[in-house]
Amino acid sequence: MNGQILIAMNDSEEAIRITNKIQSAGYTVHLADHLSQAITLMEQGEFDMLMMDSRLSGMREFDFVRRMQNGKHRMPIIVLGHNGSNEAAAALEAGANDYISSQVDERELLARVSNLLILFNHGNQHRNEKIEIGDLLIDPQSRQVIREESAIDLTQREYELLLYLARRVNEVCSREEILSYVWDYDFNTGTNVVDVYILHLREKLDKGRKWKLIRTIRGAGYMLKAPESESRD
Fold first, then answer.
1. What is the DSSP-derived secondary structure letter of residue 173?
2. From the CB of residue 51, how many other CB atoms can be counted at a distance below 10 Å?
3. What is the pLDDT of residues 170-216, one digit of tens each?
4. What domains are defined for the chain?
5. C-alpha distances in angstroms, 156 versus 11, 161, 196?
6. Which residues in 4-18 are b (16+ Cβ under 10 Å) and which e?
7. 42 CB contacts (<8 Å, ≥6 apart)?
8. In 28-92, where do the E strands start and end?
9. Residue of 8, 37, 89, 165 with fewest CB within 10 Å of its CB?
């Protein structure tokens, strides 16, 4: 059994105790003792699960859990709690996948971790399937983008923006939603970064082509529009 698990906890002794339990089952553990450190680690590498203290320094209530589940660093989240049912309800409502007492015994902890990883990995199999929209092909596993049989060279951020739009094909995506997912902003900062990157995508995907995939929906946001949907309008 293997997997990369990020544990974010204030209490170093408790973190070591949980780490020893997790490592005994063959998982690789990375530790953070503050929200900012956890965010840095997630930007630097990929993890299969986040286990976090409900009292983690730097976290206001469970706002970070909510941002995680709406952002690009999606992974199963287990909250290690202290205050029982009210705290558990708040964590789960924010988007945590499970809530466990920090004093949970080893057998139950490992069973919950294993079951959650199995469920999440099963769901991710579908997220790795190739996406075909007209003459556009996106391969999430290789991160390759092809249009009209020509490879399109995208930066990481351009690719993440395109993938987000493609997974919501024919749906209007607001600037706020795009900022939250692609840039991990949980509020509108007034930046025009979304408009700039949409322009980049248009230059690379649509310029010189009859069918324009990227559409502006005035007053609402942007849409990636499939060719067949236009003919039915």
1. B
2. 24
3. 999 998 888 877 876 655 556 788 999 999 999 999 999 999 999 99
4. 4-122 (3.40.50.2300), 131-224 (1.10.10.10)
5. 35, 9, 15
6. ebbbbbeeeeebeeb
7. 6, 50, 73
8. 28-32, 49-53, 77-81
9. 89
